[in-house]
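Database export, one record per block. Field names are fixed; values are copied verbatim from the stored entry.
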Amino acid sequence: MLDEVDNEEIKGIEKAPVKESYYSRMLPRGYLSVSQVTQYLKCGEAYRRRYVLEQPIPPTSFTAQGRSVHKAAEVLHNSIIAADPLSLPEMEQVFSDTHDAEMVNVEILEDGLTPGNIKDAGMSLTRLYHQTAFGNTVDAATNKLVPAIEPIAAERVVKVDLTYPEGDPIPFLGVIDLEEAHTVSDLKTKRKAVSQAETNSALQLSLYAHITGKPHVRLDQLIKPTKTLPSRFVRTESIRTKQETLHALDVVADVAVDVAAGRFRRTAPENWWCSEKWCPYWGDCRGRKR
């Protein structure tokens, strides 16, 4: 149910202070973000309900788990930056406390799982990431040891105006999970690993490469345990060209123009996310009685 973890909501960002412009006045939050752009591209009507009408989304165990793992990773990253690395028990406690708080209002659970199952899986991902951060994990896809991270910033909020030869600047907000000297990284908790091809095309990574000036990007993927496999770690890396970042800017510009004009096209009904299971607005949109 629109359950990609939304970093701008994790940070509680409602309206970023930006320069007064056409788009700062016309966009629902005064800016665009990766989560807003990708939501609009999936379904304009779902975007309208979420960001214009501000219709609430029921909290799910998926988002609660993802937020909790991200919070534990953020605290770990900042402790490494401060030269006082978090111990494993300390990181486990951060995850546990955050997860308990996140699950208070959750009514929608992942299929076939109990709250205990969900917390145990999240804890296993947290332990795996602590191990990975210090260079003690083998990549499940390459069978090679993953180098330790060397963070210089964690969960960095970046507010910029995306400028174009023609047209008004577009306020954009990004929350970057992990930044190293020459690399931008996004941490994902996934049921199934994202492919190299998907990493090469990821809009989020292209935009973050542009706004940081760092073409080296990667996805650090924590893959959830299954009945037959333990938690796994997969890293996919890519290098963004100037042409790729310019294409990403064009995508954002198209979305900004449509949102400002009030165009919210519905997605094709055969898309998997246009279903009662995956869209919280389905009952009031496609599923409503006429």
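Remark 1: Residues 76 and 130 are 8 Å apart (CA to CA).
Remark 2: The mean pLDDT is 92.
End of record.
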